[in-house]
Design a protein that fits this description.
Elements (H helix, E strand, L loop, with lengths): L8 E3 L2 E3 L4 H7 L7 E6 L2 E6 L12 H13 L1 H8 L2
Antiparallel strand pairs: 1-2, 3-4
């Protein structure tokens, strides 16, 4: 895990931090890309935002989030089924 310290600065009426180019490059993002910021306890985690797609009628983002969580939780078992 890479750790750096940055100072909170003001950008117009907002506060923010700048991120080193190398870290952004390693994350696979560049100027104009969307990122997700997730709060876990007292930490903020910056992730590359998933690409947005038009969802079929009747399917919600919550469903896909639930599906992703379940697939992550059962990843080992699902991968084991591939080899059967």
């Amino acid at each position: 895990m890479t750790s750096i310290e940055r100072r909170i600065t003001q950008f117009g009426n907002s506060l923010g931090v700048t991120l080193p180019y190398k870290m952004l490059e390693d994350l696979g993002v560049s100027k104009g890309d969307d990122v997700q910021i997730v709060k876990e306890g007292n930490q903020l985690i910056v992730k590359k935002a998933p690409k947005r797609v038009d969802l079929p009628e009747g399917i919600t983002e919550d469903f896909f989030q639930f599906l992703d969580e379940e697939m992550t939780a059962h990843e080992k078992a699902l991968k084991g089924l591939v080899n059967r």
